[in-house]
Design brief:
The chain contains 5 helices and 3 strands; from the N terminus they run αβββαααα. It has 132 residues and is of the alpha+beta class. The chain has one domain: Sufe protein. Chain: A. The structure holds FE2/S2 (inorganic) cluster (FES) (2 copies). One FE2/S2 (inorganic) cluster binds next to loops. It holds the Pfam family NifU_N.
Amino acid sequence: MYTEKVIEEFTNPQNVGELTDADGVGEAGSPTCGDTMKIYLKVEGDRIADARFRTFGCAAAIASSSMATRMILGMTLAEAWNLSDADVVDALGGLPEPKVHCSLLARDAIRAAIADYRVRRGLEPQERGSCE
Ligand code: FES
Ligand code: FES
């Protein structure tokens, strides 16, 4: 039921852990299943210099966290904000329908971490023009 990419990402997840000196931390939880994901970001200039995650969730949630943290490395904050759950699903080669919400956790946790970073810097939590 899972693509090879999902299995690969789940069995050998990248960026697992925490950043004690994170510039932004965000958490997301799924009302569907109760799984949670926490994302830690290190920001240099306007770019994501490091990203880690702690996910208490299913295989798809862990694969999504791993893939999403790899994708946002080096991105500007605006680019990372705009990373969609569909982008993560695509990068994973697809997720089974009941597991699509797992990728949403990654997007939401990344956005929460960026919002946290922006608030710590005294900015509006959201990128201008990027709200939905
Ligand atoms: Fe809910 Fe995967 S995050 S089942
Ligand atoms: Fe503010 Fe959309 S950018 S409402």
